[in-house]
Amino acid sequence: MIDYLIYHTPIYYLIQSVWRDEAFSYFMARPNILEIVKNTANDFNPPLYYLLLHFWINLVGRSDEGLRLLSFLPHLAGVYVAYLLAKQLTSKRFAVFVATFTFFNPMLLYYAFEMRMYSFYAFFTLLSLYFIYQKRWTGYLIAGVLGLYSHSFYPLVIISYLAVLFLTKQLNKKNAVNILKPFIFYLPWMYILINQFQRSQNSWIYPVDIQLIKSVLGNLFINYEGTPGDLWGVTTILSIIILFFLIIPLYNKKNLKKVYWAIIPIVLPLFLILGFSILRRPIFVNRYMIFVTVFEVIGISWGIWSIKNNRLRAATAALWTAFIVLVNLISPPYHKKTDYKSTFAEINRLANTSDFIYSKTPISYLESVYYYRNPDRVFIHNPDNISIPYYIGITVVFPDASRLSFPPKPSKTYLISDNAGYEIYINQ
Question: What does the alpha-carbon distance between residue 260 and residue 395 come to, in Å, rounded to a whole number?
């Protein structure tokens, strides 16, 4: 039972090995505050998460689990906000379902255990929606500014809100100013954002095809990116089901304006991002669009609440809950990260303080320097002096990581492969 709980539930996301982007977060958060802001400007995202992680490291130390738990806090806060929002719009009993639905959503729960900014990004999205329904514009302003400084795609949330005002014929000067006001505090970062976007043209992101478009709603809801197995057909069917539940509330004209706040931020950003990815260059990545998942959760909840028959509504809510719990029990082994933790637990027992670590490619470098006990002796074996792609992130925090040759005699070097295997090279 313990083995099952560890390896076949989302607990596995918390305890497994850190992967490259998480190690990058750690190294971005280590310097002083000014250095963090400077380094972030040379990356692809705003600095808020790295600043929070900086103070969190000082509080909890270096353990993988401790560092990842920072992302779990906004997830829990988001569950509470979802409860408050649903209690305001539906009933106290149904609000418990919405909170449960939010907590167990596979996409949100996965990133609640990752050392990245996505859980904060999702939380500030949900918080902004809550304050809009409340018409508490100061709270919305704070949530919007924090969201803008959490992820570079957050402006799409605000643009979607503006579109809602237009479609519901509420677009006047006062409302437009309230919605757009967070951008005033984002102006210092706008120039940097433009430069980051131009720099991102050399990217690893995969092209968008018709299969992705057909299944995108399902993919974002359950965090499917190609594993486990070939489930594109399943996520296509799930997308149709999600679309059905998003449409149900539209037949109730009484709540139409309220429902638009959950639906337009799904449709408009996907149209813009997928369209740009097809016409210009790929920029669509599941996790970059996690805010859409937030609106899917709220939109589907609206759809379930719109079912008038109480028994049918309760049965539908139970089926959705069972479905997401099942996904959370099936998915964890298929989201396994490359196990550098075990590899370096072994190497750290074997290696002397004078031994070196060389990554065979830049892909394994950040994990290597994160887990090796002597990080100043970790380098990339780069005999051809090939330029390291900017999007890997190494040059931001380790500009001098490459080495053309092995250390001079006598020396011992552990060569790390991208699959976390290793060889030993002895120069004597």
Answer: 43
Phi and psi at residue 219, in whole multiples of 5°?
A: -60, -45
As a whole number of angstroms, the distance between CA 85 and CA 89 comes to 6
Q: What is the DSSP letter of 32?
A: -
- Bond before 333 cis per omega within 30 degrees: no
Beta bridge partners, 359, equal 380, 416
Confidence of residue 228 (pLDDT cuts 50, 70, 90): low
How many other β-carbons are positioned within 10 Å of the β-carbon of residue 190? 12
The CA-CA-CA angle for residues 219, 316, 75, to 5°, reads 50
Residue tagged 């990545």 (tokens): 285
3-state SS assignment for residue 383: coil
Chain segment 151-184, per-residue pLDDT in tens: 999 999 999 999 999 999 999 999 999 999 999 9
Whole-angstrom distance, CA of residue 57 vs CA of residue 51: 10
β-strands 422-427, 378-381: how paired? Answer: unpaired
Residue 4: pLDDT above 90? no
User: Residue 261 and residue 5: Cα distance in Å, rounded?
Assistant: 37
Dihedral sign computed on CA atoms, order 106, 218, 336, 20: negative
- Partners of 426 in the β-ladder: 412
Provide the residue type at 354 as one letter.
Answer: S
